[in-house]
Amino acid sequence: MADATATEVLRPGDPAQLARAAALLRAGRLVAFPTETVYGLGADAANDRAVAEIFAAKGRPRINPLIVHVTDVTAAAQHVEISDRAAALAARFWPGPLTLVLPRRRDCQVSLLCSAGLESLAVRVPDHPLTQSLLEAFDGPMAGPSANPSGRVSPTSAAHVANALGGRIAAVLDGGPCRVGIESTVLDLTGATPRLLRQGGTSQEDLEALLGPLADAPAAVTDDHDTALAAPGQLSSHYAPRLPLRLNVTQPHADEVLLAFGAAVPEGAAATRNLSPAGDLTEAAANLFAALHGLDRPDFAGIAVMPLPEVGLGRAINDRLRRAAAPRDNRPDDRRDNGRDNNFQQADSA
Ligand code: TXA
Ligand code: MG
User: Fold this and answer.
1) N or C: which terminus of the chain has fewer CB atoms within 10 Å of its end residue's CB?
2) How many angstroms does the Cα of residue 28 sit away from the middle of ligand 2?
3) CA distance 326 to 315
4) What is the mean pLDDT of residues 213-222?
5) Dihedral pair phi/psi, residue 122, rounded to 5°
6) Which residues contact 180 (CB under 8 A, 6 or more apart)?
7) Tens digits of residue pLDDT in 94-133
8) What pTM, to 2 d.p., does this model score?
9) Is the CB of 153 under 6 A from ligand 1?
């Protein structure tokens, strides 16, 4: 494995550095890349060894499948069966923060590791000019989970990636902060009724306006990896900062840091960080992970979170907060270690 100084930070303003990122991907190396949602950890999706490296670098259980990033629906159709429903969703929401889980084509060239034993493959067309340029330069499907160690908060800046995975990956393409700030919505189209597997940057309301009511996602499972195969992405404890979270707080404690929302902020916390003083959920989503990264410091006893409305992007924000606050039975040393080595035993943050 490379040493800590070996991760290159590439500046995409320079075409030579973008070409370098594509060349590293072609050589089977790992390159973190910006998207509109969060930073991804990219690898050549057709290269088994490169995809296996993703699981190793993240400490991610191999039963948790990966999203494959492509330039457009035509490129997606080389790998998965595009139903009429999928085509309608792609026309409406791609490029954008929506991932579609679809049946793999028989002749699909994407590594089976990306599907983690399932007959489906998750595909997404990111809405970020740099991701598009990288995909064009690389000229193939790119596997890309969020670029965080398994179980940790997703990165929304190149610095988050470098802090968590520096030395484990070949390069990070620095595209500045992510606009949406929360991961894509994952929609399973393999059954009779579309099923929401993960709330994210495309709202349930917008999907239901096109599709009608969605089937319920399977109940969240705990850190049992066998169960996880039936319901990937539904592990209840993930996206976790090291400090404990307390939700729906109206009165913070003096040793807590308050994660606030809106104008009416209670007093009494050691410090306060407001996700959106104006009460705007889009702004709150964009700030959420940077706030969790920034507040996760031993100077506080915990993070107290004010209630956020359960509508639109608020559903995805509340989902991440609930997972961050979920019990973490398997990780007793979590708040003290460096968050890497013991992650192989943990639920994945996906
Ligand atoms: O916004 C995003 O989606 C980011 C950026 C980098 O694109 N990526 C991301 O990937 O969040 P990841 O791996 O962290 O989350 C993908 C989620 C996981 O919950 C995984 O279990 C689920 O999608 N997933 C992937 N393939 C699947 C499949 N074939 N069937 C069901 N769920 C799948
Ligand atoms: Mg993830």
Assistant:
1) N
2) 21
3) 16
4) 66
5) -90, 130
6) 36, 37, 97, 201, 285, 286
7) 999 999 999 999 999 999 999 998 999 999 999 999 999 9
8) 0.89
9) no
Atom 15, ligand 1: residue with shortest CA distance? 350
Please say if the pLDDT value at position 4 is more than 80: no
Q: pLDDT for 226-268, tens place per residue?
A: 334 444 555 555 678 889 999 999 999 999 999 999 999 999 9
> Concatenated DSSP letters for 245-296?
EE-S-SS--TTEEEEE-SS-PPS-SSEEEES-TT--HHHHHHHHHHHHHHH-
If you search the block for the tokens 């929609």, which residue do you land on? Answer: 187
What size, in residues, is the chain?
350
For residue 303, the SS3 value is strand
Spatial CA neighbour of 94 closest among 127, 131, 60, 129: 127
Whole-number Å distance, alpha carbon 51 to ligand 1 midpoint, is 14
Please identify which residue in the block is written with the tokens 């995805």. Answer: 316
214 contacts 315 by C-beta, under 8 angstroms:
no
